[in-house]
Amino acid sequence: MVEAVVKRFEEVYGDKEGAKVFFAPGRVNLIGEHTDYNGGHVFPCALTIGTYGVARVREDRKLRFYSMNFDHLGVIESSLDDLKPRKEAGWTNYPKGVMWAFEGRGYQLPKGLDILLYGNIPNGSGLSSSASIEVLTGYILKEFFGFEVSNQDLALIGQYSENNFNGVNCGIMDQFAIAMGKKDNAIFLDTADLSYTYAPISLKGAKLVIACSNKKRGLGDSKYNERRSECETALAELQGVVDIKSLGELSEEKFEEVKSAIKDPVRVRRAKHAVYENQRTVKAVEALKADNIALFGELMNASHVSLRDDYEVTGIELDTLVEEAWKVDGVIGSRMTGAGFGGCTVSLVKDEAIDGFVKQVGDAYLAKIGYKADFYVVEVGDGPCVLR
Ligand code: GLA
Fold first, then answer.
1. Which of 28, 36, 337 to mutate to test the pocket of ligand 1 (most atoms within 8 A of CB)?
2. Residue of 348, 310, 280 lying closest to 41 (CA atoms)
């Protein structure tokens, strides 16, 4: 891969003088969905698939971008003097947003860059290709210009740029999982205070299989923001009767005791998901530590049911993938992952059952939905790095 991206950089920009090669992973969340903006826990991990970047510093203030995933767009030019949030869509808003966020934090970018990217995360799959580009960009800037920022800062800068430059109100999970990724470990992160621990993922005879629905997210971003505000309203209502800063502070019992303060039945279900999902995540990590993979799988399944029935962010495509997965012998657990409304599911599947899983779930999905799903057996990888 390194050879291929360097060769393309040379073709696109004429030579490779001064260029370095970088990588930032994608991520998958194992459990703890829609909890990161509710002060709850998440349990994601970085993957060995992600975004490759070749970059070099220029002598002027020009910025040149090229993506091998969008060859038809050619070289896209901009300038450090022209970094401001704009309405028009386009992938360069992700690296530009990060540059803008660095400057906003007082890290002046002294010179422009030539950048070429190639991502092997399936397109629009909900495995955080945008957060991967954000963290990669921050890492490139840090490496070339010597900014003293930690990987955790790179996550926060990435999230800030996505919220304020790109207008997507995401939580911290994706950027954190990518910036702080560690091979063969998932990250148990408390989004209330960003404290975290690594938990080894030793699946003993099983693997993580991602099924990509190939359903484009469409309305996803507006629905995402809608769920956020439903939770905020529910929290405000609960704050009338209980002293909490976020839904993540409530146990299941306490929630049941105070939930009548929420004046709308739909909002009760939204808040219930946030509270119960947070507690499930804590239990799932305990189960993993106790080597109880079966319980971990059951909690994954319960997470999906809650996202389907109470939070309502699944849809027929994700439900079909998960419900068909549950029927397969050797599936330990299966659920949607990421924001929902399309994107991917993650399943824990015993090694000997993987081929049958792909066939059985794939055939059922095609028959019901009318187009194919794609399957990836993935590995848990490290955070961003310089490859050359
Ligand atoms: C998206 C967001 C994350 C998180 C998930 C849902 O991936 O970017 O911050 O909220 O959805 O868990």
1. 36
2. 280
